[in-house]
Every structure is written in structure tokens, then in C-alpha cells.
Amino acid sequence: MDKIKIVQIGLGPLGQKITRCLVERKETFAIVGAVDVDPKKTGRDLADICDLKQKSGVRIAASLEEVLRRVRPQVALLTTISDMKRITPQIENIVRHGIHVVTTCEELAFPWKTSPQLAGRIDAAARRHKAAVLATGVNPGFLMDFLPTALTGVCQKVEGIRVARIQNAAFRRVPFQRKIGAGLTPAEFKAKRKQGTLRHVGLTESMGMLADRMGWKLDRTEDVLSPIIAGKKINAGAMTIKRGMAAGVQQIGKGYAKGKLKIELVFRAAVGEPDARDVIEIFGEPNIVSTITGGVNGDIATCAVAVNATRQILRVSPGLHTMTDVPVISFFAG
Amino acid sequence: MDKIKIVQIGLGPLGQKITRCLVERKETFAIVGAVDVDPKKTGRDLADICDLKQKSGVRIAASLEEVLRRVRPQVALLTTISDMKRITPQIENIVRHGIHVVTTCEELAFPWKTSPQLAGRIDAAARRHKAAVLATGVNPGFLMDFLPTALTGVCQKVEGIRVARIQNAAFRRVPFQRKIGAGLTPAEFKAKRKQGTLRHVGLTESMGMLADRMGWKLDRTEDVLSPIIAGKKINAGAMTIKRGMAAGVQQIGKGYAKGKLKIELVFRAAVGEPDARDVIEIFGEPNIVSTITGGVNGDIATCAVAVNATRQILRVSPGLHTMTDVPVISFFAG
To answer: Domain check: are B228 and B282 in the same one?
Structure first.
């Protein structure tokens, strides 16, 4: 099989990690270009920014157009922003060159309810230029939407779906612990919540994707964020959390149809959280309870599913896709 | 959404169950015809054969041609045989009318390694007449092939896959207990094994599907069947199994690439088997252990996935498909 020719656009922490994943699988992927707008990065070899062992021979460009003067990538891996409004012109600019897009933009995972006009713009641009676009990631994109959808395939009836992602942040990096509010006082937590920096983006998108596939019209959704307060002192690597401080965050999404709770998505990440796991419950015929022991490592998973998606994106019809309308994405060797 | 117009072909136990599933979801499906070659069934109302509560108004026909004189189904649900050689002309005959086919034929789940010529014939006929064909079921078709494939989507590396389906037959119907050899002496078990009646068809197909998606060239596969011998007396509803008798069957499929074990599929069904479950293990980066507690009820699941597949089969390109190249099949209401 020919290598898939990729341009990596966006070299923040996630883009750097994806680059390392691509390099690790160099029998399968060829990074033919890289783009970042940060002048501290442009002009340098990808290896310097992404901590690669060997020089890559790929110089970071300031724009896609600069890359296209020399090479013709098949797929752009786009890891710039989570925001639908700001990513739309970026995608329009990529697809007009006939290049497919796989992105980790959370709001694009299922934009048809939340941003139908922007979604329509992306879809139209992609179709016009015969390019396919897909947003994916572990969550949204996999654990709370695609995977439960797949499990309902063996169900004759589905009354409701509940997914819980329970993560113990004790073994995660300090930036991740900070991100989930670990160590904050309740007042600090409240202030940060107001700023919006604690929020995990994607529960609404996952609910939209599930409801769309099940044929449920959600008349109300909610997405409520609250602190998980330490009941006792917790020692977690570099960080000690006193009793009464926030150990992490809980975010619960609920979707109702005709006043009945149909979807519940529980996202808990805290230092010292016991029994880390991903649990999918399908209430139906048959009932299904499926558990991934320990939970899926989110950092690796998001990079992997984005990288793996570059193969399917070459095979689907032009336009904007979601994870539930492309053939299943899997690992593949060689 | 318009109802999906279905002709049910084959009214053995599975076809009857599928018919009941379709009738239960009558907002979604319309059974417009039914076919069986058994003269004891033809001419009678579907309700009489399938134990429906109300007359269906569908008279069982002896051939598809008889059905087509009056109505135009979109999809045929074909539950006649497991055998690739014998099902090929049946499918050719259906698709030449431009009717899509969803079948539970195990050998068709992934026929590209075991029967490439027959698979090619079906594929060519389907393309010629713009019809799509898919074989599905709980196993092969879902638990040991599609679902593990889906889980590897979040993996950066996969070294091996192990799936174990552990069923307790204590609560199943006596015919199922008989089918797995429960209550036989070791000598009787051996004789039945020789006849081939104890064998679960599909492990080879599931291995083929997994290997194809992972990019592994299997140079050897095996499929070994052995009795599970009761270590003590087991009381199981209508049946008592003495110590030293067979309580059920174990079948293990193994697939090797370059001499290394890459795929192991374990199918265990026995009366009194403890801790029933479906477990998928991905050995890679990350490792994934996913467990469905109690296991998926196989009877409901096979009917449900076949019925649910009738929606996707309307949307895919013409030709012979497998579960890993169509968009994910899910339940859907209305």
C-alpha cells in the first residue's frame, strides 16, 4: 500500500503528539508538510518542535499555500481550535485545494444541531471540491457516541443510553490536573467555572450524534459542571489536595425526549478517583453493560483515532461526515 | 421516514424470530412478502408459522418471483443456509431484481479468503444490478470481528487481539443445550464432533475480517473443538449432567502471522459455565480490555443486527460488503 501523504496543520501539544504518532508509523504515513502560524515555529524543522529523534526534513510553513508550492498532500490533520466558527474558514481553505480533512475540533464532531449553517457551509465547500471532512477524537468522536451507537447494533429496542467516563488524574501530568481544577478552593473553582476553562467540550455534540442515530428528537439537553470535593487529604505525585478542596471536575450531560431522560453522559476526572473505567449502558432489549477496565487513555486515543481516520477519509464520498456515517475506523499496519 | 419494505426469505426458527422482530417494529418496517420452499408453509399466513398475535395479511410464497408479481421489496432478509456454495445462486437470483440482501449466512461474513471465487460472483452480480449484499449476525458479524475492529480505532499500535465469548447454557432452551453437546458421554461427543454438528461456523471468517483490517497476512489458522467435561454433577433445568459427561463445547480459533499468534478467538458454551461474559482484549498501545457483563444474548442479537442492517444496506454502494466496510449499524426508532 502506498503511504498516506499528510500535512499536519497546527503544532500545539496535540499536533506535536500526532506528529510523533505519524513518525512512529512511518511505513504507513508520510508527513509531507507542516503548518503553524506561530513565528517561533515557522521555518524550523518539525523535529525541533515535536521532539523527534531525527531531523524530519520538513520545514514548518506559515501557510498551507506555502506547503502546496512543493508537495501535494492527500489529507490534512487539522488540530488548531475547538471552535466551530473559527475553524470553518480554515477548513474551507483546505478543501478548496481538494485536500481531505481530519480534525480534532470538538464542535465539528456533530455540528448539525448546534451550528447547522456553518456545518452546511463546510459540507458544501467539501462537496464542491470533492474533499471529505471528518472530526474525531476519543471524546467526542468515540467513547460517548460512536461506541455506544455501535453497541446498539445488536439491540431490538433501545429506551436509553448512559455512558460514564471515570478517570483518575493521580497519574496524569500536572497541567492535566490543573485543567480539571484539582487543588482549587471551592471559590476558586467557581471563578474558573465562570471563565469556562474547566469545561470539557463535546457532551452536547455526543448527545446530538446518539439522538440522530437512535431517531430521538431531543427537546432539551443540559450540561452541568460541578467540582468533586476531596473528602480527605489526597497525595497525588507533585500535588497535595487538602480536605474540602476540589480534587477534580464532574460534568453531566442529559438529553430528554418528550420529557423523558434518554441520554446521560457522565464525565468525571479527579485526583484519587477510584475504579477508573469507561462504562456504556444500553437500556433496551437486550440490556448491555460494557466496561473498559481502567478506561481508555485519552491522550493516546485521540491521536490514534485521528491518525487512523486518515485511511477511511480517502474512501468516503465528498462532504462533511460524522463518525457514525463512515465505515468503522480501525488501526491498520503497513 | 418511509417504512423499509422487506421480503423475508427462509422461515426456519431464525427467520421466524426475525419476522417477530420486524412485526414488533411495525412503525419502521413493512413485511411485504415472505418466501419458504417448505410446502407445509407455503400458502399460509405468516402469522400461523411465526406465532404472531394478529394475521399479517402476508401469504407465504414458494418463490421470490411469486412475491414480485404483487409487490416490490427494497431488502431481502435471507435466512436459509450457512453454506457459501448453496447460498450463492440464491443471492444471485435476488439481486438480479435490484433487491438488496441482508443475510445471516455465516460463511458470507468474510468470504474473501475462504471462497474468493463465489464471493467475486456475488459481488459482480450485485454490482451489475445495483444491489448491495451484507452478511451479519452476532458471531460472525459483530462480537468477534466488527466490535474488536472498532475498538482498535483508538490504538496507535496493535500486536494481537483476543476475544472470548463465555456462555452459560443453563438458562437456554433444551435444543441449544443439545446443540452444544451438553449431557453427551465423551464417546458420544467425539462421534458428534466427527459429524460436524457441534461446530460453530464463523471463527475463520471473523479471523479473516480482523486480519484484513489490521493489515496482517495470516499464514496459518486453526479452529479446534473440544468438550467441556463436567467436574461435578450439574442440575440445569430440564437436564442433569453427570460428572464426567460433556457440559458443553469449547472452540478455539487461532490465527498466526509469521509464526506469531496474532488472533485468538475463544468460544465456550456450557451448562453451568461460571461468569458468562464477552471479553475483547487488544494488545497494543493502549491495551484495551472491554467486557460485556453476562454476554450478549445471541438469539436476540443476531435477529436485531440483521434487522438493523436493512437501513444501512439502502445507503451503501452496490456490491458485496462486510461489516467493517459499511457505516456502523445501529438500532433506530421510527
So the answer is: yes
| Shared-domain flag, residues B16 and B130 | yes
Same domain, A202 and A228: yes
Range of the domain at A186: 146-295
pLDDT number for residue A280 = 98
pLDDT of residue B197 exceeding 90, the answer is: no
Q: What is the CATH number of the domain that holds B252?
A: 3.30.360
* Of B225 and A197, more confident: B225
A153 and A234 part of one domain: yes
The β-bridge relationship of strands B260-270 and B277-285 is: unpaired
Phi, psi of A189 (to 5 degrees): -60, -45
Asked if B150 lies within 8 A of A308 by C-beta distance, the reply is no
Substitution target from B156, B212, B282, B297 for chain A, most A beta carbons within 10 A = B156
Answer whether residue A125 is part of any domain: yes
Q: Flag whether A330 is in a domain.
A: no
Q: Are B246 and B184 in contact (CB under 8 A)?
A: yes
pLDDT at B232 over 90: yes
Give the domain CATH number at B37: 3.40.50.720
Contact call for A333 and B152, based on CB within 8 A: no
Q: For an interface test with A, give the residue of B281, B331, B332 to mutate (most A CBs within 10 A).
A: B331
CA A245/CA B220 separation, integer angstroms? 58
- Reported as type and span, the H/E element at residue A278 is strand A277-285
A19, A146, A328: best to mutate for the B interface, most B CBs within 10 A: A328
Res. A298 pLDDT band, cuts 50 70 90: confident
Q: What is the pLDDT of residues A191-228, one digit of tens each?
A: 999 998 898 899 999 999 999 999 999 999 999 999 99
pLDDT at A167: 94
Q: Strand B29-35's sheet: what is its strand order?
A: B60-61, B29-35, B4-9, B75-78, B100-103, B132-135, B319-321
Supply the ipTM of this predicted assembly: 0.97
Count structural domains, chain B: 2
Q: Write down the pLDDT at residue B173.
A: 78
Contacts of A156 in chain B (CB under 8 A): 21, 24-25, 300, 303-304, 307, 331
Q: CA of A168: how far to CAs of A139, A165, A177, A247, B137, in Å?
A: 16, 10, 10, 10, 37
**What's the confidence (pLDDT) of residue A174?**
81
C-alpha distance from B96 to closest chain A C-alpha (Å): 26
Rounded to a whole number of angstroms, the distance from the CA of A91 to the nearest CA of chain B is: 24
Residues B84 and B29 in one domain: yes
